[in-house]
Amino acid sequence: MSMHHRLARADDLPAIVAIYNSTVASREVTADTEPVSVESRRAWFAEHNPERRPLWVVDGPDGALLGWLSYSNFYGRPAYSGTAELSIYIGVGARGKGLGRYLLTEAIAFAPQIGVHTLLGFIFGHNQPSLNLFDAFGFTRWAEMPRVATLDGIERDLIIVGKRVD
Q1: Which long-range contacts (CB under 8 A, 24 or more apart) does 134-143 make?
Q2: Residues 27-60: tens digit of each pLDDT
Q3: What pLDDT, on a 0 to 100 scale, did the predictor assign at position 166?
Q4: Do 68 and 8 form a contact (C-beta atoms < 8 A)?
Q5: What's the rounded Cα separation, in Å, for the pair 67 and 152?
Q6: Are 84 and 116 in contact (CB under 8 A)?
Q7: Would you call 149 helix, strand, or coil by DSSP?
Q8: Strands 140-151, 65-73: parallel, antiparallel or unpaired by DSSP?
Q9: Which of 33, 103, 161, 164 could hold 139 in an S-S bridge, CB 3.0 to 4.6 Å?
Q10: Is the pTM of this model over 0.70?
Q11: For the segment 132-153, what is each residue's pLDDT rounded down to a tens digit?
Q12: What are the beta bridge partners of residue 149?
C-alpha cells in the first residue's frame, strides 16, 4: 500500500472521530469509555496547527481516511514546548498493514522542523501492539503508572514512552 499523509482539514473531523471511536470498545487504546462526538472534539482539532502541532491524516485509494496522527502539547507550559505527545489511530480496515510504522517514521523525522526535540507516547500497559511499535523505533519506557485507569472494573497501567529526536 502506497502511503502519503496530509494536514487534516475541518471536513476530516467526522472521519477522525469515527476512527477514534472505533477503538473505544477495545479498552486498549483510549481512556474514553464511551464514543465521543464530533462537536466535543472541535476545540481539540483547533489546537492543532501546521507550524507547531500538526494533525495528519492518511487517505485511502477511495478517499476514505485510513488513520491519523497528532502532535499534542505536553503539560501546557512554555518550558515544555520542545516536547510533544504523539497519538496514532488507525481505522479498522487499515490495521496491521504498516500505517502506524509509516506515521511514526514521518513524525520522528518531522519533529525538529516544528521545534520538537522530545516525543512521548502514553500507552496502556496491556496495549502490546502499540508498545511494540514505539519500541521498534527506539522509544524507551520513561514512566510506569500502575493501575491509574479503571476500564470495566479492571485497573490498568499507563506506560509513558519517550525518545529524543535532536
Answers
A1: 134/104, 134/161, 134/163, 135/161, 136/101, 137/104, 137/105, 137/108, 137/163, 138/163, 139/163
A2: 999 999 999 999 999 999 999 999 999 999 999 9
A3: 84
A4: yes
A5: 26
A6: yes
A7: strand
A8: unpaired
A9: 161
A10: yes
A11: 999 999 999 999 999 999 999 9
A12: 156
The CA-CA-CA angle for residues 7, 9, 15, to 5°, reads 105
Q: What pLDDT is attached to residue 34?
A: 96
Say how far apart CA 86 and CA 96 lie, in whole Å: 19
- Alpha-carbon distance of 6 to 117, in angstroms, equals 22
Q: Work out the number of other CB atoms within 10 angstroms of the CB of residue 108.
A: 17
Q: Where are the alpha helices (DSSP H) in the chain?
A: 13-21, 42-46, 99-110, 128-136
- Residue 117 confidence class, pLDDT cut points 50, 70, 90: very high
Q: Are 5 and 58 in contact (CB under 8 A)?
A: yes
Residue that has been written with the C-alpha cell 501492539 in this structure: 129
82-105 pLDDT, tens digit each: 999 999 999 999 999 999 999 999
* Residues contacting 158, CB < 8 A, separation 6+: 122, 123, 124, 125, 144, 145, 148, 149
Q: Which residues, 6+ apart, have CB-to-CB distance to 18 below 8 Å? A: 91
Tell me the one-letter amino acid at 73: N
Residue closest to 20 by CA, chosen among 44, 48, 53: 44
